[in-house]
Amino acid sequence: MTEHLHHDFTLSTGFKTPILIERYFVVNDQTDSSLFTDQIAKYNPHIIGDATNYLFVSESLKSAITYSGNSVSILSDYDTHAIIRSEAGKNWHEFVMEMLNMHLYGIENLALIPGTIGAAPVQNIGAYGKEVADTILSVHCLNVSTGEKYVFSKDECQFSYRSSIFKKHDYSNLLITHVDFILSKVQSPKADYPDVETFFIEKQITNPSSHDIAQAIIAIRRIKLPDPQIIGNAGSFFKNPVISIETFQSLLLEYPTLPSYPVDDLNVKIPAGWLIDNSGYKGFRYKGAGVHDKQALVLINSHNATGRDIYELSLLIQHNIHQRFGIMLEPEVNILL
Ligand code: EPU
């Protein structure tokens, strides 16, 4: 037993389905690299951050690892921008608000997203017209089997919609330790997402600042999305599917109100929430699990659900959406069977 290793540790999760971890390693910048080679390598632990975007289907896990350091520092300060380094264990929303207080801009549209700094690049978190990739300069990681350290430039991270190199199997033993961000001192508020536009029209705010944007997004998220502290959930359960324009046009014949967002000359993205909602699932309950009644893309722990209840509900929805629209929804949440 070392201070870095907890036996039979019960971790709470975004879905509020607690998971018992037989060996839970918690490391930081001071952790001796021999711990990785001598102990951690033997157990090949899952890297789990703060477990907000995970669905654990079984109730226990052999081993897991998380990075706990959470300090933030200014690496460089220029007239127009600053370079900020945050350790991976820092809470994402706290970071967003601290940067706004320091008049550093670019991540305000991502306010109130649950999870840590370390999880942000893995799935390239995004909301209300912005993705974290827009502000990332580099990502620092270490190999949990060898303790070796690596730095990935933004290009090397291969960011795309809700994805990055860190989601690929070959990179699954890389623990993110620090992320470097480039944040602007000049505000360029992005308020053209439909929900955000409507919010400012209703409030009669014509030239919103970045601070207004953060407040608007916090208010919108509180209305639409369940608070994971109260109702277990992991935000959107599925990704919005990208389909060919041909497939979209044939679907439009049957579903003329199906929305779409442009992707490129050949493809469009369509809202999975619309597909699920229009299949009658909003507010649906299955065992202890359910579909949120204000946003059909969000699966919830409605009353004492197990991870398996939520997983079975997701399979049911996936199957029925495939039968109805010919589209296979891909989970956005990390599922551990
Ligand atoms: N819609 C419905 N019914 C629903 C939900 C959505 O018809 O129950 C349709 C509506 O047409 C709506 C459209 O879907 O206009 C889009 O809905 P919304 O604006 O709520 O966004 P989303 O596509 O469902 C995505 C992200 C969210 C992010 C919002 C805002 C994904 C998988 N999800 O959701 O991210 O907050 O946009 O940018 O891309 C998350 O990743 O966990 C997450 C919450």
Instruction: Trace the largest sheet across and list its strands.
Output: 6-7-12-10-11
The first-level CATH class name of the largest domain: Alpha Beta
Give me the secondary-structure category. Answer: alpha+beta
Q: How would you sum up the global shape?
A: globular
Number of strands: 20
Outline the low-pLDDT stretches. none
Query: What percent strand?
Result: 25-35%
Straight-line distance between termini: 27 Å
Q: Can you tell me the number of structural domains?
A: 4
* Helix and strand run: EEHEEEEEHHEEEEEHHEEHEEHEEEHE
Main pleated sheet? 5 strands, antiparallel
Q: Mind telling me which CATH architecture of the largest domain this is?
A: 2-Layer Sandwich
Bound ligands, each once:
uridine-diphosphate-2(N-acetylglucosaminyl) butyric acid
The overall pLDDT average reads 96
| CATH topological fold name of the largest domain | Uridine Diphospho-n-acetylenolpyruvylglucosamine Reductase, domain 3
Total DSSP helices: 8
